Amino acid sequence: MTQMLKCLVVDDEADIRELLVLTLERMGIAADSAGNVTDAKHLLAQNSYALCLTDMRLPDGSGLDLVQLIGAQYSGLPVAVITAYGSAENAVSALKAGAFDYLTKPISLKQLRPLVESALKLSRTEVKSAGELHMIGDSVPIQQVRALIAKLARSQAPVYISGESGSGKELAAKLIHHGGSRRDAPFVAVNCGAISENLMESEFFGYKKGAFTGANQEKEGLFQAANGGTLFLDEVADLPLAMQVKLLRAIQEKKVRMVGSNTEESVDVRIVSATHRNLANMMDKGEFRQDLYYRLNVIELKLPPLRERPEDIPLLAQSLLEKQTHNSAVPLPVLDSAAQDMLMQYSFPGNVRELENVLERALAMCDGHTIKADDLLLQGESRKAVGSTVASQGKPDTGVTEANNLALPDYLETVERKAIIEALEKTGNNQTEAAKLLGVSLRTLRYRLSRLGLG
Q1: Of 3.30.70.20, 3.40.50.300, 3.30.70.380, 1.10.3430.10, which CATH number belongs to 140-302?
Q2: What's the fold here for domain 308-451?
Q3: Which of 74, 176, 229, 309 has minimal CB crowding within 10 Å?
Q4: Rounded Cα gap, residues 353 and 165, in angstroms
Q5: Cα–Cα–Cα angle for 340, 344, 346, nearest 5°?
Q6: pLDDT of residue 222
Q7: What is the pTM of this model?
Q8: pLDDT grade, residue 87 (50/70/90)?
Q9: CA-wise closest residue to 246 among 297, 202, 196
Q10: In angstroms, rounded to a whole number, what is the distance separating the alpha carbons of residues 165 and 242?
């Protein structure tokens, strides 16, 4: 006979304890209750639980005390905290301390049920792998990233993924989703910079029939589409300030209002966000809301650039080549040692995405069996490094010598790449300002970034 799962409820208000216990029992979950930290510690020592629900304010301590105790002595036990209405800071503190999730008073059964179900999924089963998704590499930085992703997968806390363009932020978000209790629910990814500002609210929250001209039928938004799962907000720095306010409310209250509706509906969505821009700097300049920043950046996952883990390049290159030749008539070529050395010495400003583009180009250039150094078409970058060395020895560096042994298209591409990188560095990776500096439109810059493997 299967043993009934048990939950521990900790709250000093008897009516709330009774409500929670009755609700859990109706879900087929046994429940013990305690009115303070001392009694809760005693029950934890005497019983085995699948979930702990604790209030933040207790007569002899704090819910954070229990979160930290459980993390240290009962690893694997999900703990969720109950906070007063509007106490966003308490919820963030609890999530940073290791809480699985949080509820706000007055407690909504529509929010309680999915939270309990998600927590019990983690208690019943070990975290599963993400199928064919892998963060490839054996370097120390990537091992640390994988370890943190595994930890984040067991939580419901919002995660902010930082890293340069092309470093694998969406892959990391998918790994967090597929490794946790939401893996069977939708993973919805959206590029915030690709949505027109006047359509953002209806795209995120949906709209009712007749809400505006052209709204001929009701349409759900991204939050509803991701209900029960994960909403990945890529390039979240591109959200206008007006939308940031609405997004903050949706995250805090776990409710959304469709355009044209008079009522709100509860949504159970985990938020994972990412950008290559520096949100802290944007916040200081008033370009990104401070309150939203702290809601999104509960836990930060920093992805290392490829240049900081060159030892992973051979493994990555092999995997990318296998992907590019899979289900095609093109045979899998071999990278010779000189080509491998060249890849490992190159700085890859466009990171893994640029490596993928370089290899795709090399597949077209090689003899079909072996990829050689010349097939990579990275000579311009290599000569640039050599030119810097010569200049440091006291010889003039005109910059013109880079073109001597390059075909004109390759030389022009090298010059363009350098100009774009310098513009992005000068503007703190602000693509709008970089486009102005280069005298091109933002759309043109984004196209060139993609074409050069930088965006």
Answers
A1: 3.40.50.300
A2: Helicase, Ruva Protein; domain 3 (1.10.8)
A3: 74
A4: 8
A5: 115
A6: 96
A7: 0.69
A8: low
A9: 202
A10: 26
Q: Which amino acid is at 454?
A: L
* Strand runs labelled E in 348-445: 370-371
> What are the structural domain ranges in the chain?
6-124, 140-302, 308-451
- Per-residue model confidence as pLDDT tens digits over 383-435: 334 333 333 334 444 333 344 455 555 666 777 888 888 888 888 888 888 88
DSSP three-state, residue 253: helix
In the block, which residue shows the tokens 């005298």? Answer: 439
Instruction: Give CA–CA dist 109/31, Å, rounded.
Output: 16
My answer on whether omega of the bond before 106 falls inside 30° of 0, hence cis, is yes
Name, in order, each residue with C-beta under 8 angstroms of 356's C-beta and a sequence gap of 6 or more.
Answer: 320, 324, 453
Q: Which of 155, 425, 147 is nearest to 278 (CA)?
A: 425
Residue from 47, 91, 88 nearest 70 by CA: 47
Place of tokens 């999530």: 95
Alpha-carbon gap, residue 241 to 200, rounded angstroms: 12
The enclosing H or E element of 104 equals strand 101-104
How far, in Å, CA of 299 to CA of 172, rounded?
A: 13
Contact 240, 197 (CB under 8 A): yes
Indicate the DSSP class of residue 432. Answer: H
